[in-house]
Amino acid sequence: MLWVGGAFLIYSLSLGIIYPYIEIIGDDMQASTEEVGFVLAIGAVMAVIGGILTAVVDKKYSHTTIIVFLGIINAAVCFGMASTNDTASFLGFSALYIMLWNMMYARYYTALATTDKSGYFSSYGPEIGTVGLALGPIVAQSATSTGDFQGQVGVGALCILIATIMVFIGFAKSKIIERNLSLTTRSTQQKA
Question: FRET label pair with 70: which of 57, 93, 112, 145, CA 20 to 30 Å apart?
């Protein structure tokens, strides 16, 4: 549960690191404010549709599979954002980033609920996300030189990869704990 909470925090850092700078990077690439705003709006609409599809697919497969799959794709999209010098590519990567980030955000709430058997810790999901968003720009500025906005996007991509690894570990630990509790319960019932 703590691994998944930490993963959610680090994942939330990525939005705080990347989102505030999309317009600045777009401006450096000769994209207008209107173009960037339009792309972000398209990404948000795609996120709603993608989120519904992800929820449906999540029922069929596992939380781990969905989060790892989306995390790898989202990190690749971020690395594409950080390395492209083409305005159209940057705008396309930005729309995909917004879509994927939001799709995964909902999956992190699901991951918290799945690994939190008490139901108490997962109620801190909004606070965990907010702390990550607030700390993102600080982390971005600390990890890169001033004005290296594309470097900051790379840091955001690393946060996504680290969070993906952490949630994978968190799910694995949660399953081990569940198995041990189940074995202990069965053992106690057999003795009685």
Answer: 145
Give the helix/strand (H/E) hosting 124.
none
pTM: 0.80
pLDDT-based confidence at residue 161 (cuts at 50, 70, 90): very high
Please state, in angstroms and rounded to a whole number, the distance separating the CA atoms of residues 16 and 146: 16
User: CA-CA distance, 114 to 59, in Å (whole number)?
Assistant: 13
Element (H, E) at 192: none
Asked if 16 contacts 155 with a C-beta cutoff of 8 angstroms, the reply is: no
The structure tokens listed for 87 are 């305005």
CB 98 within 8 A of CB 40: yes
Per DSSP (E only), the strands in the chain are none
Locate the DSSP E strands across 98-158. Answer: none
pLDDT above 90: residue 61: no
Q: Could you tell me which of 17, 10, 16 has the C-alpha nearest to residue 153? A: 17
| Contact assessment for residue 138 and residue 37, using Cβ atoms and an 8 Å cutoff | no
